[in-house]
Each structure stands twice: as structure tokens, then as C-alpha cells.
């Protein structure tokens, strides 16, 4: 996608500097900063501190981290060490471990002298695959938006509610939940997006920044406004992303997603999840019982970052002194609340049969593991 008219991916390899470049998302939407990632510690910090964020982007970043490790020391021992170090950074998004496992398995099958070049090439491939997956998710989600638009009076937009940021800066490009929105807009289908603020990190502001840059009509709303809008017929469908999805279709996403799904169910609003296949955890069935939920720093709850009146980016405390903050970063939406899963291979029901029907190859491998 574009920033001030220039195309960017969320990360890219700079051939001249022989190093990975990332968009440091901590400063968005107020300031656009690019950072070079030079060491394994830099990679870990980028993931932990959410300089990069979003399950697909975390996975791609980890792949480049493994490439860095293979370039400095391609031994089995060092690859295992890098795997363990990066695996500890964030526990919920499954793409992290998916990418680490894929890299380690491929590299260990090669002679040590071939590993460095192969690791970098694999990281490039994982990034390119993510872009293709997200584009195809957009194509399949576009069909849903087309159907709703066809039943609308002329000029009335399809009203979509989304939660958190499952946009291009949460992936390598296109985004997951936003990809159908971009493609609908580019097809001249009128849409309007309700953007949840998504406390505590206000990641909806990133979605608003993206959509505004692309010319898509949108409104930034408080997290608790979505149910009200659904009650009054102002939401045609919900599309969110996912950080981990179980083999039966339970969806783990940013905290607050579950409440949106409950409101959608109560008001007969379709609730879709944009699902790239690397976010499917075929080893897990019951998301509520089995998915580890990351507990982040309480300061993210007690303080808010924003732009001050004199143009500085700063933080203010919003709680009384001494009040603790609880900060579970994700929640799980059970599959019975999900209307459908929008994947790169098509749209399916949120069930074991639905996922296995679209991904028989992956389901078969999981069953035999």
C-alpha cells in the first residue's frame, strides 16, 4: 500500500544495506519512522515492543530473524538457540512459531554451508507468500461485499465494522480484514467502515490512518459503540482478523472481539473472520481452554499515547495514582458465533469440517503428526 504516494511493505530487505527495514509502528499514526534491524536482540525487541505487530507480520519478521542467525552461525545449535529466543517474544499469535518451525526444519535439512543463503531466500518467500495470501483473502471477501451491495439502494454504502488493526501494516501488505475493503473500494463499491478504537493501544487509529490514506470513508468509534450501531441497523457485516484459529474454528483475536461477536449474533449481523492459513493451529481444538493469552504491561492500560497540542507525541496517565491495570491482550470467540471464515482458498463455515474441506492437505498432515 502507499504512504504519501510511495508504495511500502511493512518490512523489506534493503540490498544496499544488507539488512531488514521495518516500519516502527509505535509512532503511528502521527509519525512515520523506518528502523533497521541489525541483531537478534533487535528482532526480539521489535516483536515484544510491537514495533512490528499483527500475526502475519510477526511471522515474517521471525523468518528474517532466523536468516540473521543462520548468516552469523549456521550450526544446529545456533539455529535452536535463535528459535527459542524468538519463540518467547509473544505467546498467542501462532504465525510466530509457524515461521520459526518452517525455517528451522528447512535449514537443518541442508549442509551448513548452504544455510545462510537459503534462510534469506526463505524469508523473502514467506513475505511474498503473505502478500499473495492476503490479496486472495480480499478477492474472496469481496464476493461477500458485492452480494450485500447488490441489495442496497443506489448510493447507500455497505457498512462494515472492524476491530483492532488487521490491515496492511499488520501483515506484509494488503492486510487480512482490510483486503476486501481495499478491493471493494477499488471496484467503486461504496463502503463505510466503522473503526473500533481498540483499547488499550488504540490500534483502530492505525486502521483509520490506512483507510484514510486509501480514500475509504470511515468513522473512528469507541469500543462500546458497536453494539449500539448494530441495534439500530447501521452495520451490515463485521470483519475482523485473527491471531490464532483452532482446527474447529474458534478464533483468538484482539481483546474485545468476543463482545463484538456476541453483539453481532444478538442482532443478526454477519460476523466474518479473515483467516490466512498460517494462523490455523491444527494442534488446538478448544480455543478458550487451550490458547495462551498474553498479559501485557499494565502501563498500556493506565496511560494513553497521543499527539499533544504543541505537536509532540507523548503519554498521559488516565487512572488514579496507584490503581493497577489488567491487560489481557486477546480473547477467544467460539466458532458458533462466527458466520464464516474468509481464507485464501475460499469462505467456509467455522467448523472442523469447514476448515478441513478447504485445507485437506494441512488437516491431513496435522492428523498424522
UniProtKB/TrEMBL annotation:
GO terms for molecular function: S-methyl-5-thioribose-1-phosphate isomerase activity. It is an enzyme of class 5 (isomerase). Keywords: Amino-acid biosynthesis, Isomerase, Methionine biosynthesis. It comes from the Bacteria. The gene is mtnA_1. Substrate binds at residues 53-55, 90, 203, 253-254. The lineage of its organism: Bacteria, Pseudomonadati, Pseudomonadota, Alphaproteobacteria, Hyphomicrobiales. This is Methylthioribose-1-phosphate isomerase. It catalyses: 5-(methylsulfanyl)-alpha-D-ribose 1-phosphate = 5-(methylsulfanyl)-D-ribulose 1-phosphate; 5-deoxy-alpha-D-ribose 1-phosphate = 5-deoxy-D-ribulose 1-phosphate. Belongs to the EIF-2B alpha/beta/delta subunits family. MtnA subfamily. Its EC number is 5.3.1.23. Pfam families: IF-2B.
Amino acid at each position: 500500500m502507499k504512504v504519501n504516494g510511495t508504495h511500502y511493505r511493512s518490512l523489506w530487505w534493503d540490498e544496499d544495506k544488507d539488512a531488514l527495514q521495518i516500519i516502527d509502528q509505535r509512532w503511528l499514526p502521527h509519525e512515520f519512522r523506518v528502523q533497521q534491524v541489525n541483531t537478534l536482540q533487535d528482532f526480539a525487541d521489535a516483536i515484544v515492543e510491537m514495533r512490528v505487530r499483527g500475526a502475519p507480520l510477526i511471522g515474517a519478521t521471525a523468518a528474517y530473524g532466523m536468516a540473521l542467525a543462520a548468516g552469523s552461525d549456521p550450526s544446529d545449535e545456533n539455529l535452536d538457540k535463535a528459535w527459542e529466543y524468538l519463540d518467547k517474544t509473544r505467546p498467542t499469535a501462532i504465525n510466530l512459531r509457524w515461521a520459526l518451525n518452517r525455517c528451522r526444519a528447512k535449514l537443518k535439512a541442508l549442509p551448513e554451508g548452504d544455510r545462510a543463503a537459503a534462510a534469506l531466500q526463505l524469508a523473502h518467500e514467506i513475505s511474498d507468500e503473505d502478500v499473495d495470501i492476503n490479496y486472495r483473502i480480499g478477492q474472496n471477501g469481496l464476493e461477500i461485499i458485492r452480494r450485500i451491495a447488490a441489495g442496497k439502494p443506489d448510493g447507500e454504502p455497505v457498512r462494515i465494522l472492524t476491530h483492532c488493526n488487521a490491515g496492511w501494516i499488520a501483515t506484509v501488505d494488503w492486510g487480512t480484514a482490510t483486503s476486501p475493503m481495499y478491493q471493494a473500494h477499488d471496484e467503486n463499491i461504496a463502503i463505510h467502515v466503522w473503526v473500533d478504537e481498540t483499547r488499550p493501544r488504540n490500534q483502530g487509529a492505525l486502521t483509520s490512518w490506512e483507510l484514510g490514506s486509501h480514500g475509504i470513508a470511515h468513522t473512528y468509534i469507541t469500543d462500546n459503540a458497536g453494539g449500539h450501531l448494530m441495534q439500530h441497523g447501521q452495520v451490515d457485516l463485521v470483519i475482523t482478523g485473527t491471531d490464532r484459529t483452532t482446527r474447529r474454528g474458534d478464533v483468538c483475536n484482539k481483546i474485545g472481539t468476543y463482545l463484538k461477536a456476541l453483539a453481532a449474533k444478538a442482532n443478526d449481523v454477519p460476523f466474518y473472520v479473515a483467516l490466512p492459513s498460517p494462523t490455523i493451529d491444527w494442534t488446538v481444538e478448544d480455543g478458550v481452554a487451550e490458547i495462551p493469552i498474553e498479559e501485557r504491561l499494565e502501563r498500556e492500560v493506565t496511560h494513553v499515547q497521543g499527539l499533544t497540542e504543541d505537536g509532540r507525541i507523548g503519554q498521559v496517565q488516565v487512572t488514579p495514582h496507584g490503581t493497577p491495570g489488567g491487560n489481557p491482550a486477546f480473547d477467544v470467540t467460539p466458532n458458533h458465533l462466527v458466520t464464516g471464515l474468509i481464507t485464501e482458498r475460499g469462505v467456509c463455515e467455522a467448523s472442523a469440517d469447514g476448515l478441513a474441506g478447504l485445507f485437506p492437505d494441512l488437516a491431513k498432515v496435522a492428523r498424522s503428526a
